[in-house]
Amino acid sequence: MPIHKSPEKRMRQDRKRSLLNKAIKSEIKSVTKKVRQSTNAAEAAASFKKCVSLMDKAAKRSILHKSTVSRTKSRLAKVVNKLAAAPK
Question: SS in 3 state form for 38-76?
Fold first, then answer.
């Protein structure tokens, strides 16, 4: 445990940030899962749009690395485009 006040405050801040980051990552994972599991092209496109927005915000705040976000968006776009192109 820290002896001085500033490391104590840093620990409190880290704990708060950690919880916020975990919540954001969890939300991104659930929206990503929704995109992958959707069978309807319109539903997938709507979920994809939300997912991209969340991931971009996370990358901007350095919660996720920008390359990770880019790769994930690309893979999700493939899934959505495949659904849109599928014969009805």
Answer: CCCHHHHHHHHHHHHHHHHHHHHCCCCCHHHHHHHHHHH
Domain boundaries, the chain: 5-85
pLDDT at position 83, please?
A: 92
Give the pLDDT confidence of 54-83 residue by residue, as tens digits.
Answer: 999 999 999 999 999 999 999 999 999 999
pTM, two decimal places: 0.87
Distance CA 80, CA 6 (A): 48
List, as own/partner pairs, every contact residues 33-37 make where C-beta atoms lie below 8 angstroms and the sequence separation is at least 24, other chains included.
Answer: 35/76, 35/79, 35/80, 36/76, 36/79
CATH code of domain 5-85: 1.20.58.110
Region class of 64: left (phi > 0), else alpha (psi between -120 and 50), else beta: beta
